[in-house]
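User: These chains co-purify. Model them together.
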Amino acid sequence: MGSRGGRWRLGENVCRRYPILICTFSLVFWALPAAAQVEFGGAQMSASANTSVGYDANYSNLGGGTDHGLGLAGSGTLAGFYYNPNFLSFSVQPYYNRGQSNSTSGSVFDTSGYNGSVNIFSGSNFPGSISFNQIWNGTGSYGIPGTTGLTTKSNNRDFAIGWGERVPGLPSVSVNYSRGDGSNSVLGSDVGGDVTSNSFGIRSAYRVAGWSLGGGFTHANTDANTTGALEGVGAETSNTSDNAFTFGTGHTLPFLHAGFGINFSRADYNANFGGETSGKSTGTTDNVDANLNLQLWRFPISATAIYMDNLYGSFEEQQLSSGGAGMQTSLSPETRELLLSASTSYHVMPHVVANGFVSRQEIYITGQSFGVTQFGGTVNFFLGKRFKGLTATIGANDSASQQGNEGAGLTANVNYTGNIGRWDVGGNFGYYQNVETLYGLYQTSSLSYGGNLSRRFANGLNWSIAGGGGRTAFVDVAGSGSQAESVSTSLNWRGYTVGGNFSQSTGSSVLTATGLVPVPSPVVSNNLIVYSGRGYGFGAGGSPIRGLSISVSYSNATSSTSGSDTNGLIVTNNNTALTTGVLTYQFRKLYFNASVLQFRQGISTSGIAPSLVTSYYFGVSRWFKLF
Amino acid sequence: MTACILLLLLTPLWAAKDKENPSVFHPPDLLLQDGRKLTYERSFSTEKEVRGRPGFWTKVLDVVAGEPDYREMIRPYSIAVDSHGRAIITDPGARGVHIFDFEQHKYKFIQRAEKDKDPMLAPQCVAVDTEDNFYVTDSESGKIFVFDASGKFQHALGSLKGGEGYFKRPTGIAVDSAAQRIYVTDTLRDEIFVLDMQGQVMQTIGKHGTGDGEFYFPTELRLDDSSLMVVDAMNFRVELVGRDGSFQGTIGQVGDSVGSVFRPKGIGFDSEGHLYIVDGLWGVVQVFDRQGQLLYYFGGKGRGPGEFQLPTGLFIDHNDRVFVVDSFNRRVQVFHYYGLPKQARGATP
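Assistant: Joint model of the two components:
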């Protein structure tokens, strides 16, 4: 009796200490026999869930300090339809405390949230949809081009609704509205940013008497507080509003297989920004383009005319809409452009195609007019029989303005995909010299290359490697270049994998709420941040016995940014390192998990200590179908 | 509180007893002439259906840890039944072969797509010899894989040096154990290869064309006592040839009405010699006599019992059980044909 009474007391103690745990398990077990789709008031639904219980120990300087204990986590899916999937269907996926330690989620933190969507009348001529999601304590990335970026802790919420009409014989109409807001803080610093955006759009299309007609209106506004984590330019705020109207029409012509189209668009924007560079930007951009396509004997001819009355405005609008601050550019205050171009091609031989083009640009900028004429040609070779998989393009062009000839340019492009012996080989190489002009003002030279190699050896051994890179620079503009390189490799053998990767990049950018956005440095002359990043990582994984999987990985990204504010040049050095190890054993629907995670991120100019997170976890999770 | 928790924990064990064997709608028997009939028996699609009735501890384990991940058919194509009643089903979608043994409550899945030597990539058709060895054509690798009765891989026929297959697209296969010959259709070559048991080509039958003794994309094969029946797919017919390759006749013609053949897939014959032809597009099985006269048909497009969506393979065992592979519904449906006793035969149904 004594021992029995002891067990009861033990049970009562457990119940008092972990009531949520016990009740959750009880409910899960109770729900199991009901595993079938249920019908409720005309709605058919199915639901599944994954619950886990585990012990974790955390060592962190992110505010939570050191703690340990039992915790619950889980995720679920509820999906179904009312009457018929084409009438109304829905899906909701909530999750709670999901992270790298207890799930396949890549989050450093215990993230909670939900995703949902509803489709209405999807089988009719009036389909509509609603989607929504919210994330608490998510792991995000503050972008630095060419690397994995800086890790952020973020909260986000998005909502979108759309409806359309597509009755045959009537003009189609689609309307959509979306709203999103989010905030993030860059780990390793004491600053953060937030963005709120709204957008509304309506579009219609119609075909009548051979004419295709289309038009639409969009409105968007974005309020952004830009993080000052990379203090080169300090924190910025911006409130941007955009309106855009578009209209287009087209028709085929009764001769020479011809057709033409005309499109008109007007966009106006209004932005207020504060911080290091406070001020206001407003502008209107009109854009008209017309195109004509026809077949003249064996020559398909395409001619295009484009007129834009405010190049500066369109460029500034792009930067502002992504949350960037106001800027000074070489395009201000007013730039107009007219571009006329024509191109054709000809099959010289079965595997050889020649292309030719001519273009004329008229640019009005800073009170002066410029004219640039370009012409050139390319020859495409499809080397089919002897060199199967090999294609090559070689071309040349020449540019001239009122200042005289601006020099000849070259293009070369080679691609190969095929097998050499037992090797699977792919490669590409491109070279472009003095060929691309930015708004008729700058010529660009660029180089790109890439390749991949793989082979299946005996005994199931596979090896592959892939790499690539590129460089771009404006001709005669010192310091305008950007470049990026990357390489990755992996070795697989009977379910075991070892791999690694390396990447690096340099260039110039502007600061936005979501990260650095690359820009051409000759165009933007203020608020520029020069970045360079380098990252590498390696990992290994395998399944030594059925149901057991083990994986470890390490990644390290180093980046530096340099910009200038009123205090002069400021250089920031950033480093992010992440180590993970995960062991999972699956027995039927039970998953036994153990994991370790170590995260470190530091930003040299932030003035606070690097963020550190170390966590250990082991637990068990159970997948089940509720109904 | 503790009592409540115990009650909650034990509830599923009691509740699990009440969900056995929900009633299933069966299509009515098809009553034929002279007392013959065709009845619907059942269908199967997953490994779970092979397993026997679970015991108490198995049920407890199922509740605590969940049921195992039972394997399901993905895109079954062809079927053969061996002397022990085991259904052997090729599944190109799963890149393997399912073996359902309902008598022994055993299931086996054979897969060798990841093997370095002679990988089986797209198992297409299957045939069984008298010792229950089974032969699987692989339309992608161009080989024939031979397995023993336990499912153990024996060797591959048509495997050339360097790993390539001898056949362009082997599909239908039939084994004549008495004569020690294997018949294989090479669909892209419009020929039937006659091999010895070691894979040596002894003879070829047919050539490309639309005439008698010619083929246009031949696919499935079946052997009976006197004839080799070949599904001549793009000639919309089943051609009957002798084992020496001599032309014996055809059954079926192209058309869009009952009795014509539009997308012939699997074929088989029952104990009375009637020829069963699966029509993939219409979702029916049509039954002809040896003179090519339509006797009756069964099935129809649908997902319910006795209905088909893109049916493919067919096999009739020595008990006149008709196995039809219902490919898009991911299942095999079993019917039973009750013919006349041998002494009473002579009339057509």
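The longest helix of chain B spans residues 2-15.
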